[in-house]
Write a structure and sequence with these properties.
With 307 residues, this protein is α/β, with parallel strands linked by helices. The chain has 15 helices and five strands. It folds into two domains: 156 residues, Response regulator (Rossmann fold, 3-Layer(aba) Sandwich), CATH 3.40.50; 140 residues, no CATH class. The longest helix has 29 residues. The chain is globular.
């Protein structure tokens, strides 16, 4: 290898190493601010966060998923995916990068879906049809956002943990010992939170915390401001069932047993619990204490099913 080629090789190696180091450090910084259990990774060598068009795309994406990680090299993208082993990832890739990346990342279990964002749909649709996780090839961001909304909603439904215990089993130590530890921990958390006297400042503290988590997210910031001025214990269920930060953060916290967020949202969790109790007492009389059947459909990964 001559001197020129050697320098070029060293430069290329240094660039890859720098990209890898940058991806790692940014990943650690961003993960500390995760509010949701999923993220979007956007990989394209032409991404420029200072570009107005790029900023518009980011604003639209953050209206669906708060955490958007930008990569301008395939090295960064792969490292993001390897380090995001606790969160589910949705990948948006340029056509050229996608064609190189997909064979290497397609089987990663935490990669939920891939969207190709390009200008030449005819060319990229040819190879994309061979990969089941590629959900579409698009020339604009809107159909990708629409698809993400559906995917995120399905993810939230499929990852909502449900544990059922009969009223006559609550005092049975044998039955309680057979329950999942996570359910038992959540019950302990609930009992502790219900015993705590929550002060009025708790709402302000949660608002400040959420404003930091969703900093730069215009859509969620407006909803957080609305929550600050309109929230009442009597509308807790309405806020919980709304597709916004309350639902996303609390579900993630309960699923991962994130004590910090559970405590910060403790007053809200208690309000939801008490409102459900009131509704139950009101509605149960309509059935005259007769048993009735309810159904719930839920998708499960093989790992969760085995558990």
């Amino acid at each position: 290898m001559d001197g020129k080629n050697s320098k070029e090789a060293n430069a290329h190696s240094t660039t890859d190493a720098t990209a890898s180091t940058t991806a790692s450090s940014v990943a650690m910084m961003r993960r500390e601010r995760m509010a949701e259990n999923y993220l979007v990774i956007w990989v394209d060598e032409t991404i420029d966060p200072n570009n107005e068009h790029c900023q518009q795309i980011l604003a639209e994406l953050r209206g669906v998923v708060n955490q958007i990680n930008l990569c301008t090299t395939t090295v960064q993208c792969v490292q993001w995916l390897n380090e995001s082993n606790e969160e589910t990832s949705f990948l948006i890739s340029s056509g050229a990068f996608g064609q190189k990346l997909v064979p290497d990342i397609h089987e990663m279990p935490k990669l939920d879906a891939i969207y190709i964002f390009c200008t030449n749909t005819e060319h990229h649709e040819q190879w994309a049809k061979n990969w089941t996780k590629i959900k579409g090839v698009h020339t604009s961001i809107k159909p990708i956002c629409d698809a993400l909304k559906i995917a995120v909603k399905q993810y939230n439904q499929n990852n909502m943990s449900v544990s059922i215990i009969g009223a006559n089993e609550e005092g049975s130590t044998e039955n309680l010992n057979q329950l999942e530890p996570t359910f038992m921990y959540s019950q302990i958390f609930k009992e502790i939170l219900l015993d705590i006297k929550h002060v009025q400042e708790a709402t302000k503290d949660l608002v400040k915390f959420c404003q930091d988590k969703y900093h730069g997210n215009v859509k969620e910031t407006k909803i957080i401001e609305e929550f600050e001025h309109t929230y009442q214990p009597s509308n807790a269920i309405w806020w919980y069932t709304r597709e916004c930060f309350t639902y996303k953060m609390l579900n993630r916290a309960l699923r991962t047993l994130d004590g910090d967020i559970i405590i910060r949202m403790g007053f809200f969790l208690c309000d939801v619990h008490r409102q459900i109790e009131i509704l139950h007492k009101t509605q149960v009389s309509q059935y005259h204490e007769s048993p009735f059947t309810v159904f719930r459909g839920q998708g499960l990964s093989i790992a969760n099913f085995d558990n």
